[in-house]
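Re: the request from the purification team.
They wanted to know what the chain is likely to look like in 3D before they choose a buffer screen. I agreed to run a prediction and write the result into the notebook, where they can find it.
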Amino acid sequence: MTHIKSKDTILDTLEPQVRLKQLIDYSNQVEADPRVPPIRLIYLYRYYRSGQEMIRMANVYYKEGSLENAYVLYLKFMTLFLEKIRKHPQFSSVAVNVKAKNQATLREILPRAEKIKQQLLEQYTSDIQQYLAEKKKLENELKRTEEQNKLFDQRTSKSTASGLSGTISIVKVPENLDNIAYPESISHIPPVPPPSTVAVHKGFEVPKIDRTKKPSNIFRYDTNILRPVIVPVQVMTLFQAIAQSNTFKNIETCGVLCGKLEKNELIITHMILPKQKGTSDSCCTTNEEEIFEYQDVHNLITIGWIHTHPTQTAFLSSVDLHTHCPYQLLMPEAIAIVCSPKYNETGIFILTPDYGLKFIANCNQDGFHPHPTDPPLFTEADHVRIENNASVEVLDLRKK
């Protein structure tokens, strides 16, 4: 994400048109890599497939009223399929029905994106008006308080010059002390300090402007701030049980983790085991269209994947890193779960966003090959929350 450099004048960065331009600039940061076929990405991903998942997430954001996030995803979709994908050297090979479906989606979201744009401009205009009104009010209070304190200082100075240290008040003491009504909270009254330590209290506190309440001049859709991913504990237990026969044969098993976006949380609700071919250290999926068809019917978003290491510990191998890369390029929160039955380990990993993701995306080597380990290319996913009582639906396409 590109942050706009802050300026001395707050107004320059709070202007509604400036804030809107930040969204548009950020949304334009999407490319159609000419090295990657437009219909098939490594292990399950296709540009057109990714586009449909963008729209699913955008629709959820739109329904929940998260207009900035919805607008960014709609713009990314439009940028990719109205401009970038057409320059891909293999664009002409895309099937007519796939292009037609994409065009229908574009026709649907274009007016919606324009409507959101107007709503955001109204929201940003309201934000700046409210902030400036509050700022002016606090500045007036500050000016008034400073004038009161200045007047107090002048009066105190005159009193000191005449030999008085403060205002003298005469208090009449009741004749019958037994009739005094003491407050119940008398024990909480602080002790009176000795006269030599008594400080003059002006009584006029200078108001403070809360800078955190001003509208943000930086777009909040930051890929370094990951949305929580909710993982039912059943995902791991059921998957290892299903994979047990392969594990005994020293064969890896893999599955795709899908779910929904709800209140800015990604919730895994389905685990799909596609048709696949496994070895002792790898697993390749086949008949990927079956996965996509099921996701379309059930309106599911791909959130990550899961696989076993029958004889090794839980970590991401060089092949695993390349398998996971397209998942995380599409969705920064995407996770890779590795189950190691032999060592009774389970790891939930992501590529390090500040280094590993870019490094693997630019690595052109295939198969098992060495990678540098410092700085680390992957790390444990700390944005994951394991839910003991949540359920998961399992679809085993290997049996069909």
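For the purification team: The chain is about 40% helix and 15% strand.
Please add any questions underneath this entry.
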